[in-house]
Write a structure and sequence with these properties.
mainly alpha
Length: 162
């Protein structure tokens, strides 16, 4: 089966009636959970990205509370990977790089606040360093005023961590 290009899909969708478009959207939402989540975001949260970022932060706080109950580094690593996977999915929804940076930075800050011993496990250290590198790339794409704020905060966190 050949996958149609985005332009072909756009042309075909323009020829559909509103009822047919609604049926197609509902069918996509039923097909996969990710499609349903993205459609929910577009319908209910896309107009207020700041509010969505706050909801993501609240969810991240809850996930970190669950994670802090773990003592085994293996389960901590699995929990961090799970949280990061969820956050990356939410970051795909966002249009503004500032909000993506804020979510990724918040995750990095929560690792620090949770006092997770990232340097005791090589995989945890790689996750930590990967997140640090990702934030560096995101911050470099921001406006210089925001960039200066994030760089200063990042340096404070990293200096306090080591």
């Amino acid at each position: 089966m050949n996958i149609s290009s985005l332009q072909e899909l756009k042309q075909e969708l323009q020829e559909q009636s509103p009822k047919q478009l609604l049926d197609l959207c509902l069918h996509l939402a039923k097909y996969k959970k990710d499609n349903k989540e993205y459609l929910s975001y577009l319908l209910f949260h896309a107009h207020d990205e700041e509010g969505f970022v706050e909801q993501v932060k609240t969810e991240t706080d809850k996930l970190f509370i669950e994670l802090q109950e773990q003592k085994n580094l293996y389960y901590i690593k699995k929990g961090l990977r799970r949280i990061l996977r969820i956050l990356n999915k939410y970051c795909k929804y966002l249009d503004e790089k500032k909000n993506v940076t804020e979510i990724q930075f918040y995750f990095f800050k929560k690792i620090h606040e949770a006092r997770i011993p990232v340097h005791k496990d090589k995989r945890l250290e790689n996750l930590y360093n990967g997140q640090l590198k990702k934030i560096g790339v995101l911050v470099s794409a921001l406006h210089e005023d925001l960039r200066a704020d994030y760089v200063r905060d990042l340096e404070n966190i990293v200096a306090g961590k080591k």
